[in-house]
Design a protein that fits this description.
Largest sheet: 7 strands, mixed
Distance between the termini: 39 Å
Helix content: 40-55%
Structural class: alpha/beta
Radius of gyration: 21 Å
Oligomer: single chain
Strand content: 15-25%
């Protein structure tokens, strides 16, 4: 009986910090975006989602690249402060066209206005990302940019796309991985950056940070 009790105690992982070590080895995605989740899963990253609802502070004097990096860092820090021993990945995507910075549309009419602005024009999709582990003093903040040109699309086709609801919760009011791909004339850069995460850059940073843990 004593032996059984000893075994039970030995395999109580929390007492020996095993759960903590497993937890520390797993990445945290500080985003509820299903597209970022799918991209990480596609590349075999072991992670869990822990996201915080924050009031984003956007400084309008910042450049597009600085804006998306700042927003990504804010999202990551909100989670990292509650989980300082964890490795946190966060991201934010914006679209820049003709001097205007586009985030997520408020409603269908706002989305239509965004698509009209992008229609037939060159745009730049920027995703800022942050990788943090406060306990280890790790802070990496970077971004990637992809150039896209839309073909000239009729209002009828734009309205038909909006009617699908695919524009919701997407920077620039479109999903390149779905119906809006038909709008594209050309893409220069990382397609996955447009979807929501520049995996080529992000995975490189992840490998470097994992080596430090």
């Amino acid at each position: 009986m004593e032996g059984i009790l000893v075994c039970k105690y030995f395999f109580n992982q929390k007492e020996f910090g095993v759960d903590m070590q497993i937890e520390k080895n797993k990445w945290v995605l500080a985003s509820n975006s299903p597209r970022r989740k799918e991209l990480l899963e596609k590349h075999g990253v072991v992670f869990e989602v822990i996201a915080e609802n924050i009031q984003e502070k956007q400084e309008f004097f910042l450049t597009p690249s600085s804006t998306c990096m700042s927003l990504a860092f804010q999202k990551g820090l909100a989670v990292a402060e509650k989980h300082p021993h964890r490795k946190i990945l966060s991201a934010d995507t914006v679209v820049f066209c003709e001097g205007k910075l586009l985030g997520k549309p408020l409603d269908e009419e706002d989305a239509f206005g965004m698509l009209k602005l992008l229609n037939g024009k060159i745009q730049y999709v920027l995703t800022g990302f942050s990788l943090l582990c406060l306990e280890k003093g790790i802070k990496k903040v970077d971004f990637d940019v992809t150039e896209i040109k839309f073909s000239k699309i009729s209002d009828e086709k734009l309205r038909a796309y909006l009617a699908t609801g695919d524009y919701k919760d997407k920077a620039g009011a479109y999903g390149i991985q779905s119906g809006a791909f038909d709008f594209v004339d050309y893409i220069k850069g990382d397609l996955e950056n447009v979807i929501g995460l520049p995996t080529k850059k992000v995975l490189k940073y992840m490998v470097e940070i994992d080596a430090q843990m």
